[in-house]
Write a structure and sequence with these properties.
The complex is a heterodimer of chains A (609) and B (255). Chain A is of the alpha+beta class. Chain A has 4 domains: 104 residues, Sandwich (Immunoglobulin-like), CATH 2.60.40.10; 131 residues, Immunoglobulin-like, CATH 2.60.40.10; 131 residues, Sandwich (Immunoglobulin-like), CATH 2.60.40; 125 residues, Four Helix Bundle (Hemerythrin (Met), subunit A) (Up-down Bundle), CATH 1.20.120. Chain A has 9 helices and 31 strands. In chain A, the strands form 8 sheets. In chain A, strands 22, 24, 25, 26, 27, 29 and 30 form a 7-stranded mixed beta sheet that branches. Chain B is an alpha+beta fold and 255 residues long. In chain B, the strands form 2 sheets. Chain B has a 5-stranded antiparallel beta sheet. A two-stranded antiparallel ribbon of chain B has the order 2-3. In chain B, a hairpin with a 2-residue loop joins strand 4 and strand 5. Chain B is globular, with a radius of gyration of 24 Å. The chains are: A alpha+beta (609), B alpha+beta (255). Chains A and B meet through helix 3 and helix 4 of A and helix 2, helix 4, helix 6, helix 8 and helix 9 of B.
């Protein structure tokens, strides 16, 4: 057989582990191409990294194949490096009916509230497969010769059961011939049942039974435990076997021929079939509890938590064990109600089944991985599980004690949440988004910007106005300075006072010393100050200045004659001092100074008004 | 013509009606949204925040809160879209950057940006430290300083004062130049229309704007893309890692 194995890679998305949406549902076959006589396995794998298993599995149309066995469910869960991933696979053993190229259509399943579909799987069925041949010789129809020496009988332990109750189905081959090989050609169609094959001891010697006065050797071909999953009258279709038997050769008179012929006779293939069976299945009585999910039998439940005290972001395992007798394989995981701040993953399911006296019993363990996100005392509500007790003929509800978990604040360094990414990323993810903004906020219109608002444009113009103002002001200042007349007029008083200050200084100096030079300088200063003041004030160039002219101008401007006289006196005394400095004493000097000051103050007052 | 006018009238009526009906200020609506969020009524909060936007008001905190509501509601692509919109209005907000980073970590596609000169990162950090409004005010301050020192220079009587004013005006001219450049850069950023977020759950990006074209790559919701070209209802997008492809424009939403 050159069938290439198809490697199935189930992509378990690690990156988005926190999101329940990452569910894959894939179909695969274990051989392709497959021989028409071969059986192959179709596996439907539901891989999910979040919570929730599959529900409502719908098979594609398989009219080109026979379902020989299945579905067999297996689940696995991994918790590696902080990644939680789980997968559930359903496998069916199929046998092709004919040669050709076919496509196994999409199967669908519901998980996490969504429906997922598998990829269609193309498969090629080729002619025959070299299975170990017993005899090269072509089988010969020897049915007539076999007669009732070989037959197959299917028996069931009960003909009337309640839905979910176990029924044992046994196939026995009664034989009075020499059997070389027996193989299953077609399994019974077990529609409406969940079937579980019961292991039987292969080496057990055949029993001996007498039927209709004939002694048969009886081989138990197959033992099955059936659990009806629906009510009504269910039919178990016949099982077909192909048996290779040894028959006596036709007698040959030729000794040569006889010599070479098989001394043990020839082999012949015989098709045998069992009779169809009918089972009446009664529905379960009304009044099932809410959490009843079809468990029938007798069960006990226990719950354990691996630790009572944990830290945030550290996983806790809650183990729910249901043990007993009944349709254990069909048990669904009981719902565990968690406080909201817990992260929950779909449970890891494992079962341990034994079949003493053909009765299916054992235990099924559901391991829930819980990750608390916030510290505090957390209470997990009691886990409940209901089943229909076959002995008492009533529903029984089991209830675990309430589970209390003390969650301490753990170091928020590593959240078992995500694969890939740096440590920093992981640290980030263990955090939550920050709170919304509350309080007063400002709203704007889209496309509305500060720079284009009217008030801002006004604000922009203000400094420009200030700049223009400053510029204008400075220009005015400058022109004022250039206006010499006005300037001299305004600054005349200041200049005169400066000169008088100097004169006062000289006056003090001369008081102590008899040096006439000092007096001369004093008078010169007083005279200069007065002339300068008059020049500035009356706007007359100093060169054109004379006492008479000045007096005339002053009287024209309405200065009182008294002041004119004083001015004349001071100026004359200044002139006199120049030519006869010694003639004037200290007292005269002081008088002249006072006089000059008075004149300037008076003139300033008079000329301004 | 009259038909057209009545249509416009009707449109105006339709636009103003919700505002008239609710008769509430956006501030009040915002408060209501916040209350709904705090009470855990996430879809109600989303509705209220969206209604404020529909009435033509925008605000950084509004987009931020809407992003938070979408995040809580499990719609990560829309959360990212609104965070990105908020980022344009308040680029320096620490809470916003934290939440956006968190949301980006949850999405399926992890896109490594093309490495670039480190100076650009410095520039971005400097740029993002200010909002457009702050930059406008800072440029304004530089302008006022420049004018002020020019005024002092013009009016100053003493040599020292004028010297100080001269240096002051050079310094404020520098400040003005920096913030004016930043202002125009940020104004360009704020009004750019070439950034979008993938809002569809999963998108097969094509090599050309045609449904029958070969597939380039697959994107999941929440990825930020740059729109480089448009053709009828197709957009050409570029990812941060440099990949380019075409997708239908309805699968994205502009930031």
């Amino acid at each position: 057989m050159h069938a290439a194995r198809v490697a199935v890679i189930v992509l378990l998305f690690g990156a988005g582990a926190a999101m329940a949406q990452d569910v894959t549902f894939q179909a695969s076959v274990d051989k392709n191409p497959v021989g028409v006589d071969d059986q192959f396995t179709l596996t439907l794998t539901l891989g999910s990294s979040g919570t929730g298993g599959g529900k409502n599995l719908q098979l594609p149309e398989l009219n080109k194949f026979r379902i020989m066995a299945g579905p067999n469910q297996s689940s696995s869960m991994q918790f590696i490096n902080g990644v939680v991933s789980s997968s559930v696979s359903y496998s069916y053993v199929l046998q092709p009916k004919e040669i050709g190229k076919f496509t196994i259509g999409s199967a669908s399943i519901e998980a996490g509230g969504k429906t997922f579909q598998t990829n269609p799987v193309p498969i090629e069925v080729v002619k025959g497969s070299p299975r170990p041949k017993q005899q090269a010789a072509a089988p010969e129809d020897v049915s007539g010769q076999i007669g009732d020496n070989l037959f197959l009988r299917a028996t069931i332990s009960k003909t009337r059961v309640i839905q979910g109750e176990q029924v044992n189905l046994a196939y026995k081959l009664y034989s009075r011939v020499s059997l070389l090989d027996v193989r299953e050609e077609k399994a019974s169609n077990l529609i409406g049942f969940w079937g579980e094959e019961i292991e039987r001891s292969k080496d057990a010697p055949p029993a001996v039974e007498v039927v209709n006065g004939k002694q048969y050797r009886v081989f138990t071909i197959k033992l099955m435990a059936l659990f009806p999953t629906q009510s009504g009258t269910l039919e178990i279709s016949p099982m077909a076997l192909k048996a290779t038997v040894q028959v006596q050769s036709k007698r040959s008179l030729d000794p040569f021929d006889s010599f070479f012929s098989n001394p043990f006779g020839r082999s012949a293939a015989v098709d045998i079939k069992s009779e169809p069976l009918k089972i009446k299945v009664d529905p379960l009585p009304l009044g099932a509890p809410d959490d009843f999910k079809g468990a029938v039998g007798k069960f006990a439940m226990s719950t354990t938590v691996d630790k009572k005290t944990t830290r945030t972001n550290e996983a806790v395992t809650l183990k729910v064990t249901i043990s007993g007798t009944g349709n254990i394989k069909l048990l669904e995981s009981p719902a565990v109600e968690l406080p909201v701040d817990f992260e929950q993953y779909s449970p890891k399911v494992s079962d341990n089944i034994s079949r003493p006296q053909g009765l299916i019993s054992g235990s099924k363990v559901f391991e829930y991985l819980l990750i608390p996100r916030y510290p505090g005392l957390k209470v997990i509500k009691p886990v409940t599980f209901s089943y229909f007790d076959l002995g008492k003929r009533e529903y029984v509800r089991l209830r675990s004690p309430q589970i209390e978990l003390n969650v301490e604040q753990g170091a928020a360094t590593l959240a078992p949440l995500i694969a890939g990414g740096s440590r920093e990323d992981v640290r980030m993810l263990s955090q939550d988004i920050r709170f919304i903004k509350v309080g007063q906020i400002g709203f704007t219109r889209p496309g509305e910007y500060l720079y284009s608002s009217a008030s801002f444009i006004v604000l922009m113009l203000l400094p420009l106005v200030a700049l223009v103002g400053a510029f204008v002001y400075s220009r005015r200042q400058q022109s004022v300075r250039q206006d010499q007349v006005g300037y001299r007029n305004r600054s005349a008083m200041k200049v005169a006072q400066k000169g008088l200050k100097q004169a006062a200084y000289l006056l003090k100096e001369s008081a102590g010393s008899p040096n006439p030079k000092q007096r001369l300088r004093f008078y010169a200063e007083v005279s200069r100050a007065l002339w300068k003041y008059l020049g500035d004030k009356l706007n007359i160039p100093q060169s054109e200045f004379s006492v008479e002219g000045a007096i005339a101008e002053l009287s024209r401007r309405g200065v009182v004659t008294d002041l004119q006289q004083s001015l004349r006196m001071v100026l004359e005394s200044c002139d006199m001092a120049r030519f006869a400095p010694t003639s004037l004493g200290q007292a005269t000097m002081e008088k002249s100074y006072e006089e000059a000051r008075r004149i300037i103050v008076e003139l300033e007052r008079t000329l301004r008004s | 013509m009259t038909q057209r006018r009545s249509f416009i009238l009707l449109l105006a009526l339709l636009v103003t009606m919700p505002a008239g009906l609710s008769a509430q200020t956006p501030e009040q609506r915002f408060e209501q949204g916040n209350e709904a969020y705090q009470q855990g009524k996430i879809s109600e909060a989303v509705e209220i925040y969206e209604s404020i936007l529909q009435n033509g008001y925008v605000s950084g905190p509004l987009y931020y809160n809407l992003g938070n509501s979408y995040y809580r509601g499990g719609n990560i692509p829309r959360a990212i879209l609104n965070y990105e919109r908020a980022l344009r209005l308040m680029p320096a907000d620490d809470d916003l950057r934290h939440n956006l980073q968190l949301a980006n970590m949850i999405i399926t596609d992890k896109i490594e940006p093309v490495p670039r000169l480190f100076l650009w990162d410095y520039f971005d950090a400097f740029k993002n430290a200010f909002t457009l409004e702050t930059v406008t005010w800072l440029a304004y301050a530089g302008f006022v300083l420049l004018v002020g020192s020019a005024c002092v220079f013009i009016l100053g009587r003493t040599y020292l004062l004028r010297k100080i004013a001269l240096w002051g005006s050079i310094a404020s001219m520098f400040v003005l130049a920096v913030f004016l450049i930043l202002f125009f850069v940020k104004l360009g950023d704020a009004s750019r229309t070439d950034e979008a977020v993938v809002t569809a759950g999963i998108v097969t990006v094509k090599n050309s704007p045609d449904e029958k074209s070969s597939d380039a790559f697959v994107l999941h919701g929440g990825v930020k893309v740059q729109i480089v070209d448009r053709l009828s209802n197709w957009v050409k997008v570029r990812l941060a890692d440099g990949k380019v492809g075409w997708m239908e424009s309805k699968e994205t939403e502009r930031i």
